[in-house]
Sequence to fold (445 residues):
Amino acid sequence: MDYEIRYKPAFAAIFLTLNPGDRITAEAGAMTSMDGKLTVKTEFSGGFIPGLLKKFFGGESLFVNTFHNKTQQPLTLVLTQSTIGDIVGVDLRENSLCFQPGAYICHTPGVKLGVRWAGVKSWFSGEGLFKLQVRGQGKVFFGAYGGLTKKRVNGDFVVDTGHLVAYEPTIKMNVGLAGGLLGSMTSGEGFINRLTGTGEIYLQSRSISGLVSYLQPKLR
Amino acid sequence: MNIELLHQPDSAIARVVLDANEELVAQAGCMIAMNGSINASTTLRQGKGGGILGGLKRMVAGESLFLSVFRSPISGGEVFLAPKLMGDLLTYEMKGQELVVQATSYLASESGVDIDLGFQGFKSLFSGESIFWLSLSGYGVVLLTSFGGIYKIPVNGEYIVDTGHIVAFEKSLNFDITKAGSSWLSAFLGGEGLVCRFKGQGNVYCQTHNPGAFGSQVGSKLPPQ
Fold:
């Protein structure tokens, strides 16, 4: 499989060439265009029960599509996300990565999609009760609204919940208020996420909730 | 006419330089700046795809009823055009062939290009997109706009495009509104819904992002009016 992420960083889209026998699994609705000879199969995301958990508590779709090249020639496929922004491909080597709702786009065989309990606090802050977790050997692609910043965390680090896109599960999250109750409300920071541990995180440079709260008072 | 595209791909605008007495037809409301000497008028256009009926048909297609016409009395008159959404622009040269354009992707064209409402049959009713497409024919340059980047696919055989990602395609291609996979059940459950399956030879222009999908993602979080 070959790929190229074009139109970075504002309108990133994944242009894939699937060689004979290659397969890739993508989130429902990610397909932009493809060769007519590709075989598409729809299945539950990670099985029936994990699929349901993801759908109702993790903000992901219940189904995923698998694109399979059953012909003898290379075929092309274009995948994208619904938000505008950047896309990153990460190689997994038996490690795993957790995603915020909506970030996941696609993965190669060898990577398993699962769910991870995120905790009641995460649910209260609007982040879902379960998190999507990928692990295994292969490539996984995810996207963001805006640009993506990779950051290695060692020790304590504080992020805004709306800007955290992906993180390694070696990192513990602790969602709470930015300061005292009054300080959090007046500073506009709202909920923050106190991370502890060692691992990599990905931050998005803009957040959909930020756009929504900008637009809200302008609607008449 | 000389067309220069600036600020590609994320917020493209077009700088059009007109020769003496040349005419540029554009989607109403897309002019952002021009020379003071240029005559701007509004038209329903005469001839094919023109008149009140043509205008009403364009309105049904999601375009404005009126088109703006910019005419320069002198050589070197400048007009700047911008689409509403963030995204790219594409120039396409018409040489007598027909081009089918998704209604909201049309921005402007030279006066030698005829704009007609191309009713693509009842099959497009089910595509979930606008029922009508614009059918362009004639000679001259056309300016098309997209949400996201535009990429061209030279189709030879069969190619599938999600209905929300089509900008334009050449009429030499046949198309069917169909499902991406083998079963109808998975077409709906799989979130791809309906797709356009092109057959034959010709070019398809696709946009990397779907304005409807982004709109519903943001819109679903906004309070109901």
User: Anything to note?
Assistant: The mean pLDDT of chain B is 82. Chain B touches chain A through 46 residues (CB under 8 Å). Helices of chain B lie at 51-60, 184-189, 211-219.
